[in-house]
Amino acid sequence: MNPVLLLAATLACALTLSAQTAKSAAPKPAKPKAKAEPEVPYPPVLPGGKEMVTDMSPDFLQPPTTLLPAVTVAKTPPTVDFAYFPGQTYRGNPWSNWGDSLFANGKYYASIGDHLAPSGTAFIYEFDPATRKFRQLVDVKKLLGLPAGRYTPGKIHTQLALGRDGWIYCGTHRGGTRATDGDKDYKGDWLLRVNPATAKAEIIAEGPVPGHCIPTGLTDPQRLIFYGGTEPETRAGEKSVTFFAYDLAARKMIWSGFGGPARAMIFSPSTGRVWFNVDSLTGSDLVRFDPAKPGKPTSIPGSIGLRAASDETPQGIIYTVPHPVKGTESKLYAFHPKTERIEVLGPAAVGTNQYITTLDADPTGRFLYYVPGAHGGSETDNSAVVQYDTKAKTRKVIAFLHPFYTQKYGVTPRGTYSVALDAKGETLYITWNCSRGTRVWDSCALTVVHIPASERRL
């Protein structure tokens, strides 16, 4: 090579390397610091120290820009009561609701938990709409009475159900995925019951599936069978969900085995059977369990989305919604338990939120109620409370609770796993995960939505 050209090439290479070295040595711009969480008081309080506030405002009918074209809005705003749950006297991780609630004998029953791990607790409350007062029925940590240092569950993730014997049944769940690590005496989570008439609480079983917690569960109130889906503690090395059926009266296992429900089941009181998708949120493997012929669940044809299911209606239909899959639209399904026929009814969302974890049918079977945005973010659709007309297959929002509560009381309802309708289909009880300026949520509150008669006409 020409000596002049060789020298030029060498100089060019040196300059390039020098520039690259300088670039790599230059300090990288600092990442912006995460905004510090605001300090919020415990227990949470309403302005003026009020225990409950009641509002009726046209602002409840102000839709967000995200509202879908096919969705209508109610013409008459509801009256809404709002109150914080008691017992939230310290910072949780965070305070939250995860299991579906119950309306029975004129009262509302719901669970909340502090989500702390390894030593947390959960509570079951009764709310009496006649007195507008809460009563604590269960403190899980106190009920278990374990020595200091032992794991205690910070969540109730199963449904609450009132059995024919007058007791409310449920199961417990971890406050964190590694909550039980280090507790060598951990045998598994607990099945519990409480009698609302006396507030007496009892342990039904410890570790019905050894070493597993119970994130999924419901109770057959007439046959007194608890159906659960469990997950192993992390050190067990197991990955499969276990399904089990437990006789609550005899306190013994009916059947258990791998391949259980990921997060929800369909229960039919008229047949006594349950259905679920095996270890799946996508509806790829639907099975049936019949307690009259206990054994390995039987595969049935068809596919159904199943993250939440309603009660069986007078028409013999159970409605479900799927776990959302990114890029797809959540749909409502109708399941006919006697024939196992499945119908796809149409979209469930009313805006951007697709995640729905509780469905409630009114006593006529005509209307369904639900709240999209279960795991936070419901406020992007103005915390919409939805009424679905099963005959017309239409969606109507009966209330937008955001930004009204943010602006008036400094609290934002951000999602729920816990909704129940009263026996007449007139009043909707919602346990919210709420934010008082925090990024996610920091407290639990109750709204009692009194649905105007004009919005319930058949």
Features:
mainly beta; 31 strands; disordered N terminus; globular; six-stranded antiparallel sheet; 458 residues
How does this structure look, described?
The chain is mainly beta and 458 residues long. The chain is 7% helix and 34% strand. Strands 1, 3, 28, 29, 30 and 31 form a six-stranded antiparallel sheet that branches. The protein is globular, with a radius of gyration of 25 Å. The protein starts with a helix and ends in an 8-residue tail after the last strand.
Structural class: mainly beta
- Total helical segments: 3
In angstroms, what separates the terminal alpha carbons? 93 Å
| Proportion of helical residues | under 10%
Largest sheet: 6 strands, antiparallel
Using the CA coordinates, give the radius of gyration.
Answer: 25 Å
Average pLDDT score:
91
Q: Report the strand count.
A: 31
Overall geometry comes to globular
Estimate the strand proportion: 25-35%
Q: Outline the low-pLDDT stretches.
A: 1-26
TL;DR?
The protein has 458 residues and is mainly beta.
Topology at a glance:
Elements: H1 3-25, E1 53-55, E2 72-73, E3 79-84, E4 102-104, E5 107-113, E6 122-128, E7 133-139, H2 140-144, E8 161-162, E9 168-171, E10 190-195, E11 200-206, E12 212-220, E13 225-232, E14 242-247, E15 252-258, E16 266-267, E17 274-277, E18 286-289, E19 298-299, E20 308-309, E21 318-321, E22 331-336, E23 341-347, E24 360-361, E25 367-370, E26 384-389, E27 394-400, H3 404-409, E28 412-413, E29 418-421, E30 427-435, E31 443-450
Parallel strand pairs: 2-27
Antiparallel strand pairs: 1-3, 3-31, 4-5, 5-6, 6-7, 8-9, 9-10, 10-11, 12-13, 13-14, 14-15, 16-17, 17-18, 18-19, 20-21, 21-22, 22-23, 24-25, 25-26, 26-27, 28-30, 29-30, 30-31
